[in-house]
Amino acid sequence: MNEYRADIISTVEFNHTGELLATGDKGGRVVIFQREQESKNQVHRRGEYNVYSTFQSHEPEFDYLKSLEIEEKINKIRWLPQQNAAYFLLSTNDKTVKLWKVSERDKRPEGYNLKDEEGRLRDPATITTLRVPVLRPMDLMVEATPRRVFANAHTYHINSISVNSDYETYMSADDLRINLWNFEITNQSFNIVDIKPANMEELTEVITAAEFHPHHCNSFVYSSSKGTIRLCDMRASALCDRHSKFFEEPEDPSNRSFFSEIISSISDVKFSHSGRYIMTRDYLTVKVWDLNMENRPIETYQVHDYLRSKLCSLYENDCIFDKFECVWNGSDSVIMTGSYNNFFRMFDRNTKRDVTLEASRENSKPRAILKPRKVCVGGKRRKDEISVDSLDFSKKILHTAWHPSENIIAVAATNNLYIFQDKVN
Amino acid sequence: MFARGLKRKSAEDGEDVEGGLAGTQATPSYSLQRQSLLDMSLVKLQLCHMLVEPNLCRSVLIANTVRQIQEEMTQDGTWRVVAPQAAGRAPLDRLVSTEILCRSVREQEGERPAPDVGDGRMPGLVPGLSAVPSAQALRSPQSSLWEVDSSRENRGGFQKSLDQIFETLESKTPGSVEELFSDVDSSYYDLDAVLTGMVGSTQSGHGSGLQAFTSAATPPPGSSCRSDLGELDHAVEILVET
Questions:
Q1: Are residues B212 and A253, on separate chains, in Cβ contact within 8 Å?
Q2: Taking every annotated instance into account, which residue ranges of this chain make up the domain SERTA (chain B) (predicted)?
């Protein structure tokens, strides 16, 4: 399978109302889907998502100083809350964050004096009367315009962006630094975290993800490649190198191996909607942490523990470095994350039940109910089960999203986007 | 050195390999497997050097893995001890024996590992990667004699090479990559045979045990020896020798 197709989806994000769903891909494109208004005539037809806007967000660049190419792949998209008729989102590649305005146009002015209807200049000699142009309806057009470009602030690759709850600032995090931006100011940013050692030879840990607290605009967390999470308070000092809280689970000595550190590296960190918990994803598990308890997570969920005995192979083929994301549902009662073979997993925190589902064309006819899948670990394999050795490791679900209030999920399987809705609860 | 009764878990199938004998060396198969892991990791580090913009997180994780192996081998005493054994043995032998370890699985798959001389492609590693330019592959060990004499310098050289990888990552001038790993000997491509042998292996039981005491906390031994070695070439030799 060719992994370098430009249409491989690299990020998925619902906006704050769930009306819009944005995807970014490896080719630097952003595609926005909009949910159909549910019409009274067709009660059975739940709101479906259709393409609303497509635009090229980032282009490949060349860093002449280092002789290196800068990929146009969109690493993250984050929406701003809607404050007027237009929609705003942040999209970022490895080096540059852009603020895009997506707006509708359904009227256009007609009746210019100096131009004709095609826009050609009229001969002034032919103009004998003066008229006021009027706005007339036109076919809906959705246009995306770049409103701000936040560039040249990151030496390393940007892995996260997060909009602050004050809606005036946002942060961007790369492997070693986190910068704070004001939306209005593009030519400077504040560096709030810097873990670069004076001597790069001493580098043993990098920043892997970062996010602002959903309600407290002074708080944010960032995760590391050593499986730690730090909560920082921007009121404490300008440079938040000293954390307020430090979350780390003690290592289980019986499970220690040469791969322990790699699989403990956190690939994603997400605050719950309530702001009381954080969820982290490492290679084999998803963990839920209470902000008030730093010494261990309150919940640990096994995503695909059957891979534990395959770590050497997964190290060899680089799969062990795959960065899976994780998401909360709207009520923080269910969490979801992806796996291999186009499987994704959901864990109900209350009932402790979990389910494995598959995002594939064969299994997903429109309005068909998804059948739970099961991986057979050893011994006899039942008819519907799939054995670990048959899993397709090139089909990985790294990016998923959950509607903010309804049971609608978006799952990106390489270059395909699946949207699943709940039928009955 | 090892706590009595401490179990080392095999990374592959959870089988316990008893490593609880104080003061003794690790079993030969474990050592070989650990050596393969070290070789593979070094190749990976090299490869991420050659990518357009190396993924820093991945590089750091691999480098940390290499350090862990180095530290364990130092504490094992195998970091030094390997020298007399290796003296007189062609480096190829060691690679071949690892391949034999994996052969039982490979035979099931019906494949034969074919060393790709001239085409540095590494199946199973980063897919889509084009052929490794010959100037940038590791040189196979030239003199095992070097190792017998100066094991302390070995460690220093190893540390120095790791450090240079990070320096190069930071400065990112293409020239320095060439400097770091020059003079290919094509016999190194035989490592392909080892690596392909490990693809899909479920029972090769790669050693994964580590002693309980925090090797991560101790500073890398030999960091004070860094200044002992000035020559880049020697550093590369040592990297491969160990």
A1: yes
A2: 30-77
Find the residue in A nearest to B195 (Cα).
Answer: A316
**Tokens encoding A116:** 């004709």
Spatial distance between the Cα atoms of A389 and B199, rounded to a whole number of angstroms: 12
- Report which of A287, A293, A290 is spatially closest to residue A276, judged by C-alpha positions: A290
Asked if the Cβ–Cβ distance from B206 to A312 is below 8 Å, we say: yes
Per the CB < 8 A criterion, the answer to whether A425 and A407 are in contact is: yes
For A159, the closest chain B residue by CA position comes to B57
Chain B, 74-113: which have a CB under 8 Å from a chain A CB? none
Q: How confident is the model at residue A288 (pLDDT cuts 50, 70, 90)?
A: very high
**8 Å CB contact of A313 and B174:** no
Structure tokens at A400: 């998923």
How many CA atoms lie less than 13 Å away from B47 in the CB half-sphere?
Answer: 24
Res. A239 pLDDT band, cuts 50 70 90: confident
Q: How confident is the model at residue A163 (pLDDT cuts 50, 70, 90)?
A: very high
Nearest chain A Cα distance for residue B102, angstroms:
12
pLDDT digit string (tens) for A197-236? 999 999 999 999 999 999 999 999 999 999 999 999 999 8
pLDDT of residue A46: 67
Distance of CA A281 to the CA centre of its chain: 14
Q: How far apart are CA B59 and CA A419, in angstroms?
A: 35
Q: Do A312 and B166 touch (CB under 8 A)?
A: no
Residue among B9, B55, B174 whose CB faces A257 most closely: B9
Q: Mark out the alpha helices in A283-417 (DSSP H runs).
A: 311-316
pTM comes to 0.72
β-pair type (A386-387, A375-376)? parallel
> Which candidate, B137, B89, B117, places its Cα nearest to that of B236?
B137
Task: Give, in degrees to the nearest 5, the angle at Cα A96 between A91 and A97.
Answer: 35
**ipTM for this prediction:** 0.91
The distance of A210 to chain B (nearest Cα, Å) reads: 15
Nearest residue, CB atoms, B61 vs list A2, A265, A311: A265
Q: Which of A201, A377, A391 to mutate to test the interface with B (most CBs of B within 10 A)?
A: A201
Check B11 against A258: CB less than 8 A apart: yes
Sequence-ordered list of residues with C-beta below 8 angstroms from that of A80, at least 6 positions apart, any chain: A88, A89, A90, A163, A167
Helix orientation angle between B91-109 and B191-198, rounded to the nearest 10 degrees: 30
Q: Are A211 and A162 in contact (CB under 8 A)?
A: yes
> Which tokens sit at A259?
């791969």
Closest residue in A to B169 (Cα) is: A200
Among A61, A67, A271, A247, which Cα is nearest to A163's? A271
Residues 6+ apart with CB under 8 A from A115: A121, A122
Q: What is the pLDDT of residue A40?
A: 64
Beta bridge partners of A271: A278
Q: Contact B56/A176, CB-based, under 8 Å?
A: yes
The closest of A39, A42, A48, A45 to A19, measured between CA atoms, is: A48
Q: Work out the number of other CB atoms within 10 angstroms of the CB of residue B180.
A: 19
Please spell the DSSP secondary structure of B111-146, one letter per residue.
Answer: ------SS----TTSSTTPPPPPGGGSPPPPS-HHH
In terms of Cα–Cα distance, which of B116, B154, B152 is closest to B137? B116
Is A317's CB within 8 Å of B13's CB? no
